[in-house]
Amino acid sequence: MNTKRGHQAEGETIMGQTASSQAGTLESNDIFIRMTQVPEGGESSVNVESIVMKQFGEDIIKTITQCLEDSGLKGVNIRANDRGALRCTILARMEAAITRYKESIK
Amino acid sequence: MKTFRTMLFMPGNNPGMLASAGNLGADSVILDLEDAVAPGEKDAARILVRRTLTDLRPENVTCVVRINGLDTPYWRDDLAAAVTGGTDVILLPKCEHPDMLREIADFIGTSSRNGGAIKIMALVESALGIENASAIASFGGPLIGMLLGAEDLTAGMGAKRTPEGDEIAYARGRMLMACKAAGIAAVDTPFPFVTDMEGLAKDAAYAAQLGFSGKALISPHHVHAVKTAFMPTAEQIAWASRVIETAEAAERDGKGAVSLDGMMIDLPIIKRAKSVLQMAE
């Protein structure tokens, strides 16, 4: 799995995308998470932008990555925009995004 | 009853608010899954509320979850999340009949984080709910109180909501008496005019004077004023302490009747004094 800091360019699309979800908001203390399916055989990736990237970036990426692994989902690109969310909130938003993503596959 | 003196509503899908739940001074927080959450966000809100209850539970604050009404497709999932999270109390909106409480109680069963049953409060906010207040209040079991919801009520009545609250006088009285008769908490409706602090103080003082156990709030800025309104004065506390001391002394001395400052100290007076001291704790 690739883990990245920073922000992917707006408008970037993934060919063959069939499943996606999002959860959270861009409000203070929240985190906005968008999950998209990568093309068949593609590797999962986590891309995080945060207002506290220097202090907590590694922890945020680790938390998100762990949630994704626990979900059993493969080939998923996650883009997260963090506005100072507590771990509890990151877990909740990931759970919502994963649940919605699985619903979108059905 | 101190638990219900200030009951602060907070949106169930707002992590910033939920994180501050323990720091706003309210005795109880109502984590709202109903009106404060858009239909498309119900799922995310119940996850966030459950996680908040399990991972970020505020200390010394009673946690209440307002689920969606029984007329919606959401309430079972809301209840499941609240029970799993270990909420102290479930607040059932649009309660109009004791059968609705039975449905909730059956769903909850006996599960809770402390092994005891999760409690229920009924939010009464319709003419039918007010007319059935006695039947609802006497449900017993896990029902620990009723909360008046005047916004929906007055909307249904076609009445104008005012800071003076004349339009809800009957509803307040009827629900209050039903709760008193059943021995459960009676919680007054929130004051909806958020920036009218003078009106809030009057409204809260009036509710306290009537005998309500407390008041629901829709703004953290209202906590102090409402708490003050429901807090006994130093004079009242001193009086209550003297009543209890006098009554205990009389009991030790085997006296049947005793007076204090020319007033006969009987059971209702002792009961009131105990209530004052309890509110002051």
TrEMBL record, chain A:
It is found in: Cytoplasm. It is an enzyme of class 4 (lyase). Residues 1-23 are annotated as: Disordered. Its EC number is 4.1.3.6. Keywords: Cytoplasm, Lyase, Phosphoprotein. It comes from the Bacteria. Its main location: cytoplasm. It holds the Pfam family ACP. The keyword Aminoacyl-tRNA synthetase does not apply. InterPro entries: CitD (IPR006495), Mal_deCO2ase/Cit_lyase_ACP (IPR023439). GO terms for molecular function: citrate (pro-3S)-lyase activity. This is Citrate lyase acyl carrier protein. It comes from Pseudodesulfovibrio methanolicus.
Automatic annotation (TrEMBL), chain B:
This is CoA ester lyase. It holds the Pfam family HpcH_HpaI. One of its GO terms (molecular function) is lyase activity. InterPro entries: Aldolase/citrate-lyase_domain (IPR005000), Citrate_lyase_beta/mcl1/mcl2 (IPR011206), Pyrv/PenolPyrv_kinase-like_dom (IPR015813), Pyrv_kinase-like_dom_sf (IPR040442). Keywords: Lyase, Magnesium, Metal-binding. Residues 5-220 form the HpcH/HpaI aldolase/citrate lyase domain. Its cofactor is Mg(2+). SUPFAM superfamilies: Phosphoenolpyruvate/pyruvate domain. Transmembrane segments: none annotated.
